[in-house]
Amino acid sequence: MNALTPIQQINPLRGFSQPLAIVDLETTGGRALVDRITEIGVILVDEHGVREWSSLVNPQLRIPPFITQLTGISNDTVADAPLFADLAGTLHDLLKGRLFIAHNARFDYGFLKAEFERIGLRFQVRSLCSVRLSRALNPTQQRHNLDAVMSQYRIHADKRHRALDDARVVYEFLSKAEIHHGANAVAQAVSLLSKRPSLPAYLDESLADELPEGPGVYFFHGEADLLYVGKAKNIRARVLSHFSADLKSTKEARLSQQVRRITWEATAGELGALLLEARYVKTLQPLHNRQLRRQANLVSLTLKANNEGLLMPQAVSGHELRSGTRLYGLFNSRAATVKPLRQLALEHGLCDYAMGLERMAKRPCPSRQLKRCQGLCDGNESINSHNQRLLDVLEEHALKAWPFQGMVALEERNHKTNERAYYLVDNWCWLGTAHSLEALNALAQAPMPPVLDKDSYRLLLKAILGPSPLTVHQPNGHGS
Q1: CA separation for the pair 335, 341 (Å, rounded)
Q2: Series of mean pLDDT values for 10-residue runs along the chain (480 residues)
Q3: Number of domains, the chain
Q4: Neighbours of 285 (CB within 10 A)
Q5: Are 21 and 44 in contact (CB under 8 A)?
Q6: Residues contacting residue 434 through CB under 8 Å, at least 6 positions apart
Q7: Quick one: pLDDT at residue 126?
Q8: Residues 6+ positions from 320 with CB-CB distance below 8 Å
Q9: Longest pairwise C-alpha distance within the chain
Q10: Is the residue at 201 inside a domain?
């Protein structure tokens, strides 16, 4: 059905002050930038009455079997259907100037926006999520998916998971909501949900609907530069908070004036967001980030015995780490280790030669000549004694020992979406992220180079040894 068809109106929908487009889509999957639309259903509500429009769409992709099982739409079903580009002009005109309503509006709006952008059309309308409206009208109800709404309002659908039938369910929900709650109550709820935070003029006003409400990192882009990277438990709330504060904070005001585009990367949980934030700030060097920009490519100290068994401090960077290595302190560079080692030697009578502060020579070290060294270099102190004092001195600077044999994966799970992420870690270095055990095993064969990092060390320490440790997995063929 590609023509508008009038339908009998159940209720005049007095709680809405502008024309409506109630929309539902069927798709090949859940990712707007990758998957495609297979069916569109639209119900228009305005002063002319209520009309329907729908069409199958050839997605130019194979439809997965589980989608066919859910919707009944197969590859054969859409083989002769029009492409989205063939429908775009008509659909764009139908939706223009209307309040876009869908159950989980971000999903449907995001897919349509992506499809329009592929053919060079700008799509921007105000939207309302009927899930949020149901939640506002029925705050004591636990569930607000379409099946729950149908049960609560006694709504019947001939074919669930078909676009026009599901759009009809949303329309009937709006109609019955006005009967059950009153048109004024619906209007007030719609007004509250439609209020948007103040966004900078250069940003698309639909941004508030597109931002995800889960964890991840977000990026503020300027005309040519990356301005800021942040992390959030709720990306939408955190991003919008920047602009609600732009009159109170000089930093937020500066960001608000400079930002031209916002992107984001969702994660399964907070640890993933924190790890990404720490790495992106160091590697991308955003203009407005300061706190995390230091500490990149850090080195630590370990002790290595020479041929005589004398333990000597040695600086090691991430790519030199080995599992089980005992580490002492984190420093910005190898040169930065010299001053603290010299201070320890001075305070505890340690030998300049053994500490690597001077080149070995036959004469006593400079500190011994000044009567600061206790005499390892001239035979007045044994190697065992010096080793023990050095171990005692360094112990208070020791990093926590890596508690595993080799690399492991930490599993983080989003309990709302059931999404899982596996963070591959070895000796406190984050080596990459996988989103399935199969991908994890492949990653373990070719992990990212280890980078020793103060922020990642602190985060991983809490994730492994904290009060609520994450589940640990051994990648296939790794660990004991």
Answers
A1: 11
A2: 66 79 94 91 91 96 94 96 96 94 88 92 88 90 92 91 95 94 91 70 73 92 91 92 60 76 93 93 82 64 93 81 74 89 94 93 92 93 95 89 88 87 91 91 88 84 92 72
A3: 4
A4: 13
A5: yes
A6: 409, 421, 422, 424, 440, 442, 443
A7: 87
A8: none
A9: 104
A10: no
The whole-angstrom separation of Cα 238 and Cα 241 is 5
What was the pLDDT predicted at 456? 86
What is the rounded CA–CA span in Å between residue 388 and residue 390? Answer: 5
- Complete edge-to-edge strand list for the sheet that includes strand 311-317: 311-317, 299-305, 328-331
Rounded distance, CA 144 to CA 336, Å?
57
Do residues 108 and 233 share a domain? no
Opening angle at CA 141, ends 136 and 144, nearest 5 = 70
Token couple for 61: 């992709």
Task: Say how many residues make up the chain.
Answer: 480
Using alpha carbons only, how large is the chain's radius of gyration in Å?
A: 31
**Shared domain check, 357 and 223:** no
Domain range holding 423? 408-473
Q: What is the pLDDT of residue 245?
A: 47
Q: Encoding tokens for residue 453?
A: 């990092």
Short-list 412, 435, 470, CA closest to 270: 412
For residues 98 and 21, is the Cβ–Cβ distance under 8 A?
Answer: yes
Q: Which 8-state DSSP code applies to residue 182?
A: -
Please state the pTM of the whole predicted model: 0.54
Cβ neighbours, 10 Å, residue 335: 10
Question: What pLDDT shows up at residue 203?
Answer: 76
Strand spans (E) along 103-232: 127-129, 216-221, 226-232
32's tokens: 């707007």
The C-alpha atoms of residue 163 and residue 56 are separated, in whole angstroms, by 9
Q: Which of 194, 219, 245 lies at the terminal end of a domain, its last residue?
A: 194
Q: Decide if 200 is inside a domain.
A: no
Backbone angles phi, psi at 382, to 5 degrees: -80, 160
Model pLDDT, residue 8? 60
